[in-house]
Design brief:
heterodimer; A: about 425 residues; alpha/beta; D-Maltodextrin-Binding Protein, domain 2; 2 domains; B: about 290 residues; mainly alpha; MetI-like fold; about 75% helix; transmembrane helix (chain B)
């Protein structure tokens, strides 16, 4: 009898241990570094979604500078794979809610961070901006667009451009289109000419790339001020100008090819000469240009070419990756040291040529940026700025989700009036 | 004391499971339902009790109707498809095909693959490109002269196409269930029917099929609850696009993208309820059957 008792107790204990072990074993990969962070206060855990070719190299270059400048600190790379950070953001939310924030995490600069700011999860970095005189080196419009109630919560590392029209010069020539169309009307005419030749006029990918197209058509149709006004309190999404922009969007979408799985296959259709145009952010340049495995190895200006999206010349529809300081960071000093590197000219010039973007700072070393990036750097210092919708600058995450939902529903029904009403409702529900 | 010795060790043995299931299944379930009845529509909101408001309001959302319709279409095609195909495979096996073991392994094997891996492969197979851009099944169909399809991108029947990989994956399992069922039908019964002048078709119609009813019901419930909760397959094939939206994907988007915990909890509760419609009658039926025997 005694032995049976002992056995029962032993099995019970084993069971309980098993339960706790499962709890520990199920934590995602990124969290494995937590234990180490607690053990040594010199570790700085930096959370990002830069794991792909180019971006991971850029992060490594910045890390090298950080470790040279701070020999007593250790950089812990807590990167989670996945384009535009879907999976990383889900994991980050559980970490923040569990009160175990990384020391610094990547986020799109602008309204996307509002959720974290409202929840009181981010520290105000205005003092860091003053200390490093960052307001003098970042464009004034950029500082204005990332400020929330006069406070700044993130340090932008790079700038990407959303309003780029990629095209295949050979296909355009064959269709008799003289050059990149400058206005929405010219664009629609050019799409018609390409269609007559039997090629795909405009390639598109999954539903988010259609939202990306929509923001470009809106900017091209409404102009910079009209576009920016849509995201301010009291904006009128029901206005006739918006209707006109959405009608143009419908016309343009009628020239779109079969939806591809994502933006890369859509961009590839242009590079391969199957399609004439694609509107995508400038991360597509790296995909076109880089040698195979990371890219398609195409020659710029002959295999593919670029121009600002129709009607948006003189405007930089921007988005930016930035780093933050979460409240309750275990190594606050280390995180600040990291943010200083991320904000510095040296850090940004190390990161950006590899990532294929331009620095947010105006004083970058122009010699490092050639070909497309040279054009982008020139435009960045002179252009007016507008914030991207799909990439988190102009609208918060819930607002963006509502917009994506409306675009998805539109693709099923093709009903412009319903789309406009849906967008107006989304703005009313989410604008602050 | 002596009596405690008989029941206490047993209780201690199952106690960890009872505690774990109580906390992590039923406790969480209760917490979720409670959250669904609040107005916690952002991470920072207080969350006051609003009763069933969220459960009613969600029917105003166009996307909810769409995702429910998608889930129903997917469930009907998947469950029927897997049952019919699984039954047919089992029927062939039962007829004493040569190399039965090999075939059984081949048909059962897809079940060992995760829905995510299946989804990645079938995303390519069901690529909607046509003509010179066709790959996967469309390329094959083009070569042999069959019409090409938009597959899961078809606005009306896309979810029926989405059920194809699920049928491919689960019909082998249904086959195994039915095969066990077929083998459980005593040969004497068939013999007796044949002696009475029953045709071979009649043997199946009147003897084997009625005896397979419990197996069919088990298969129906297993497939039905997988189908109503389907998430991984959809995400692997098309991501979180509206054209293939189902309640589980909508729930994920509501929680992590819209940052609306109450809405996510409401959808989660509806998913649990829809699965319960399948499972609870089954449980009642099993309990009754146990009592009878």
């Amino acid at each position: 009898m005694r032995r049976r008792w002992l056995a029962a107790v032993a099995i019970t204990m084993a069971g309980l241990l098993g339960v706790t072990a499962c709890g520990g074993g199920n934590t995602p990969a990124g969290q494995a570094t937590d234990g180490a962070t607690k053990a040594a206060s010199s570790d700085v855990e930096v959370f990002s979604w830069w794991t792909g070719p180019g971006e991971a190299d850029g992060l490594a270059a910045m890390r090298k500078i950080f470790e040279t400048q701070n020999p007593n600190l250790k950089f812990l790379d807590a990167a989670v794979a996945g384009g535009s950070g879907d999976k990383a953001k889900a994991l980050l939310q559980t970490k923040l809610q569990g009160g175990e924030p990384p020391d610094s995490f990547q986020g799109h600069a602008g309204a996307e961070l509002q959720g974290y700011i409202k929840a009181g999860q981010l520290e105000d970095l205005t003092s860091l901006y003053d200390e490093l005189k960052l307001k003098d080196v970042f464009p004034a419009q950029l500082v204005e667009q990332i400020s929330v109630d006069g406070k700044i919560y993130s340090v932008p590392v790079n700038i990407h451009r959303s309003n780029v029209l990629w095209f295949n010069p050979a296909v355009l020539k064959e269709a008799g289109v003289a050059g990149a169309p400058k206005t929405i009307e010219e664009f629609i005419a050019a799409l018609g000419k390409v269609k007559a030749k039997g090629k795909i006029p405009l390639s598109i990918g999954s539903e988010w790339t259609v939202t990306h197209l929509l923001e470009n058509v809106m900017l091209g149709s409404l102009g910079t001020d009209g576009y920016n006004a849509l995201f301010k309190p009291g904006a009128n999404w029901a206005a006739p100008e918006v209707t006109k922009a959405l009608e143009s969007f419908k016309t343009i979408m009628s020239f779109a090819g079969d939806p591809q799985d994502d933006w890369q296959p859509a961009a590839k259709q242009v590079a391969d000469g199957q399609a004439a145009f694609n509107i995508m952010g400038d991360w597509a340049y790296g995909y076109f240009h880089n040698p195979p495995d990371g890219g398609l190895g195409k020659t710029s200006k002959t295999d593919f070419d670029w121009a600002p999206a129709p009607g948006t010349e003189g405007t930089y529809l921007w988005l930016s990756d930035s780093f933050t300081l979460p409240k309750g960071a275990k190594n606050r000093e280390g995180a600040l040291a990291w943010l200083k590197v991320a904000a510095s000219k040296e850090g940004q010039d190390a990161f950006n040529p590899k990532k294929g973007s331009i620095p947010a700072r105006k004083d970058a070393d122009a010699a490092l940026y050639t070909d497309y990036l040279g054009d982008a750097l020139k435009d960045w210092s002179g252009n007016k700025l507008a914030g991207s919708v799909q990439h988190g600058v102009a609208v918060s995450q819930p607002w963006l989700t509502a917009i994506n939902e409306q675009v998805g529903l539109y693709l099923g029904k093709q009903d412009v009036a319903a789309l406009q009403k849906g967008l107006a409702d989304a703005a009313t529900a989410n604008a602050q | 004391m002596r009596r405690a010795r008989t029941w206490l060790p047993g209780l201690l043995l199952v106690a960890p499971s009872i505690v774990a299931i109580g906390v992590f299944v039923y406790g969480m379930l209760g917490w979720n339902v409670q959250l669904a009845m609040t107005d916690k529509h952002s991470e920072v909101a207080e969350g006051n009790f609003v009763g069933l408001k969220n459960f009613i309001d969600i029917w105003d959302l166009e996307r909810w109707h769409l995702s429910v319709n998608h889930a129903i279409l997917f469930t009907v095609v998947f469950v029927l498809g897997a049952l019919v195909l699984g039954w047919f495979l089992a029927f062939l096996m039962e007829k004493g095909i040569r190399g039965e073991g090999t075939f059984r392994a081949i048909y059962l094997f897809p079940m060992a693959i995760s829905f995510v891996a299946t989804g990645i492969v079938w995303r390519w197979l069901m690529n909607s490109g046509t003509g010179e851009r066709a790959v996967g099944l469309n390329r094959l169909f083009e070569t042999i002269g069959l019409p090409q399809w938009a597959w899961f991108r078809d606005p009306d029947w896309g979810m029926a196409a989405m059920a194809i990989p699920a049928i491919w994956q689960m019909s082998g399992y249904v086959m195994a269930l039915f095969l066990a069922g077929f083998r459980g039908v005593p040969e004497e019964l068939r013999e007796a029917a044949r002696v009475d002048g029953c045709t071979e078709w009649g043997v199946y119609r009147h003897i084997v099929l009625p005896l397979l009813r419990p197996v069919t019901l088990s298969a129906l419930i297993i497939l039905g609850h997988i189908s109503l909760k389907v998430f991984d397959l959809i995400v692997a094939v098309s991501g979180k696009q509206i054209i293939t939206d189902v309640p589980a994907v909508f729930m994920w988007v509501a929680v992590f993208d819209s940052q609306d915990p109450a809405k996510g909890a409401t959808i989660a509760t509806y998913i649990v309820l829809s699965v319960a419609i399948f499972v609870i009658p089954y449980l009642i039926w099993t309990v009754r059957k146990d009592r009878r025997s």
